[in-house]
Amino acid sequence: MQATIITIGDELLYGQTVDTNSAYMGRELALLGIRVREILSISDDKAAILEALARAENASDLVLITGGLGPTKDDITKVTLAEYFNTPLVSNPEILAKLEEFFTRRNRPMLQSNADQALMPEACMPLRNDRGTAWGMWFEKNGKVFVSMPGVPFEMEALMQQEVLPKAKQFFKLPAIIHKHILTAGVGESFLAERIAAFEDNLPEGIKLAYLPSVGGVKLRLTAAGAEREVVQQLLDAQLAKLQPLIEEAIYGYDDDTLEEVIGKKLIEMGKTYSTAESCTGGYIAHQITLAPGSSKYYNGSIVSYTNEAKNEILGVKQETIREHGAVSEQTVREMVAGVCKGMHTDYGIATSGIAGPTGGTAEKPVGTVWIAYGSPNDIRTKKYEFKASRKINIQLTGLMALELFRKYLEEKG
Questions:
Q1: Are residues 158 and 135 in contact, defined by beta-carbon separation less than 8 angstroms?
Q2: Strand ranges of the sheet holding 217-226, from the earlier edge strand across to the other edge
Q3: What pLDDT sits at residue 229?
Q4: What angle do CA 207, 213, 214 make, to 5 degrees?
Q5: Looking at beta carbons, which pairs linking 262-269 to residues 24 or more positions away fall under 8 Å?
Q6: pLDDT given for residue 75 in this prediction
Q7: Which domains are present in the chain?
Q8: How far apart are CA 390 and CA 393, in angstroms?
């Protein structure tokens, strides 16, 4: 079964807005075993929309459309859909009542343009939008389904979960398909490919392996498909059991795990806490850590010591250490860990100092040189890296590697 995604909006074509909607919809459809055949990004133009709809109808079973449902004059998707399906626009009493309630609750007047959002193509099934004023629309034609949703990502995502995906499961006869994501850090795609080459060559029918590389790591996706979900799950579990020992040292989690959450769970299990002292990463690691709910149980905070004075006065890094070895040195990050553990009253610390670029490098310490320290005050480990990417990527790589090194350290500690 195949799907086409149509995203509507001049802002997408001008590069003013990044299309995250298609990526989200593609992931969700893949979980149902629906293959996205193509993604079409088009302008707010009636002819372009009509052409895209006709193309999608010929090629796919399911067509998902986002954008152009707002109250302004350039939002023409609804009118164009009514023309395509040869159906009039009629006012929907339920939607109108919800709109009136929406504006009353916010003590704002409801303009005619807002009231017009209650107009819906008569042939569609309205899809309730609890996060905005533009409802979705579900059309059926010759055994095919067209769904129109708002372009605002958090509204579209809610509609997908609450309305579109459940209805799609009922409407289409879909195979049982299960994905398992194996998350790795600190190793490259080529390393993994070589390590698991024999495993990959011997995958049974119905199982596929995909490599999904990102900054500093690779996500492996095992996908199993078949008629019976229980049989599919057993097949996937058997292959996962074969794969795990081949790359055990590189795996930090599965599916929706994050490196920060894995570390947090381990620290809670150990009854320990940690903190960070960041120079070149400028608080990036702290931001990643505190994205995890409940991180205050094991994370006390961060000191962003961007200058030598801050390293000396706040973290207690000796002036002679910086003078003799430099801010980007093994000796400095060691003292940063000791200082942040003392200042934040934590069991463990992580410290980073480096030259993120694009300037500031020397022959001895080129751009991308980074020192990372981690551990407890009486057991501090260090590692040097020389990254070759942009400033932003160098910072991300430093943060990821610092956390991965610390994760492995905690595993060693038990």
A1: no
A2: 207-214, 217-226, 176-185, 251-254
A3: 87
A4: 145
A5: 262/407, 263/289, 263/403, 263/406, 263/407, 263/410, 264/289, 264/292, 264/294, 264/295, 264/297, 264/298, 264/299, 266/407, 266/410, 266/411, 267/298, 267/348, 267/410, 268/297, 268/298
A6: 86
A7: 2-171 (3.40.980.10), 176-254 (3.30.70.2860), 259-413 (3.90.950.20)
A8: 5
Q: Which of 132, 75, 120 is nearest to 94 (CA)?
A: 120
Listed as ranges, residues in the chain with pLDDT below 50 are: none
Separation of alpha carbons 9 and 335, rounded Å: 53
Measured CA to CA, the distance from residue 334 to residue 381 in angstroms comes to 8
What residue type is 23 in one-letter code? A
- Which tokens sit at 362? 């020397």
What gap in Å lies between CA 123 and CA 82, rounded to an integer? Answer: 8
CA terminus-to-terminus distance, the chain: 48
Bond from prior residue into 150 cis (ω within 30 degrees of 0): no
Angle between helices 46-59 and 77-84 (to 10 degrees): 50
pTM above 0.70, yes or no: yes
**Position 133, amino acid:** T
119: left (phi over 0), alpha (psi -120 to 50) or beta: beta
Closest to 36 (Cα-Cα) out of 65, 60, 12: 60
In percent, the amount of the chain with pLDDT more than 90 equals 88
Smallest Cα–Cα separation from 314: which of 287, 275, 277?
277
Position of tokens 């302004």?
72
The per-residue DSSP string of 349-395 comes to EEEEEE--SSS---SSS-TTEEEEEEEETTEEEEEEEE--S-HHHHH
Long-range contacts at 244-251 (CB < 8 A, ≥ 24 apart): 244/182, 246/195, 246/196, 246/199, 247/182, 247/184, 247/187, 247/192, 247/195, 247/196, 249/408, 250/184, 250/185, 250/186, 250/187, 250/192, 251/182, 251/183, 251/184
Burial class (CB in 10 A: 0-12, 13-18, 19+), 27: exposed
> SS3 of 173, please?
coil
pLDDT at 14: 93
| pLDDT value of position 173 | 87
Distance of CA 333 to the CA centre of its chain: 31
- CB neighbours of 150 closer than 8 A, spacing ≥ 6? 66, 67, 69, 70, 129, 132, 134, 136, 156, 159
Q: Assess contact for 99 and 117: CB atoms under 8 A.
A: yes
